[in-house]
Design goal:
Elements lengths: L3 H21 L3 E2 H8 L3 H13 L3 E6 L2 E6 L4 H10 L2 H12 L3 E2 H8 L3 H13 L3 E6 L2 E6 L2 H11 L1 H27 L1
């Protein structure tokens, strides 16, 4: 038979697991935490409330979800980390880093999504201040506002994406170098 002390130790252990998960996965939302740690939603909500009240974590509602961060994560990084946790937004951001000044059509072709779907994602990214938009005639072009911040967060929290981005940039550099050599030879 379990006693109250066993329950307290399990509760404390789960709270610590949740805290460690948030530290390693800033921007995680409730369902992600429950799914990854295989914890019940009610218990997870309880622990999140205690962690937030104690000042160990903070949260921010961004679009449809409340995202959780260790208290040492800067406020300006919250929105960016939340978008990097969403597959489509993350893909769009990485595409814009590699292809600055892209249009909705460029992004729709890349993601193989409809223009209205891309428009919805772009409006969220623009409204949040992560991406800028500018008109070029009748066409709207998009750019990541702070590429350095995105790159730094990707490098720390998404090393597999960073490796892919680094490989892509290295290939672009090599291609440019070979073009320069071809011009010099002519």
């Amino acid at each position: 038979m379990r006693n109250a002390r066993d329950n307290d130790e399990e509760t404390s252990e789960n709270r610590q697991r949740i805290y460690e998960f948030i530290k390693n996965n800033p921007g995680a939302h409730l369902r992600m935490i429950c799914r990854e740690l295989e914890l019940a939603m009610g218990a997870t909500q309880h622990h999140l409330a205690i962690l937030e009240k104690s000042g160990r974590i903070k949260s921010k509602r961004i679009n449809l979800h409340r995202h959780y961060y260790a208290s040492d994560v800067l406020d300006v990084q919250h929105t960016l980390l939340a978008f990097l946790r969403q597959e489509t937004a993350k893909d769009i951001l990485m595409y814009l880093i590699e292809h600055p000044s892209s249009t909705q059509t460029d992004i729709a072709n890349f993601k193989n999504f409809s223009l209205p779907t891309i428009s919805w994602h772009m409006s969220r990214l623009v409204e949040s201040g992560v991406v800028s938009s500018r008109k070029d005639g009748k066409i709207i072009k998009y750019d990541v506002i702070d590429v350095k911040s995105v790159a730094a967060l990707v490098k720390v929290y998404h090393p597999n994406i960073w490796d892919k981005l680094s490989d892509s940039l290295a290939e672009m550099f090599l291609e440019l170098a070979s073009r320069t050599e071809e011009k010099d030879e002519k």
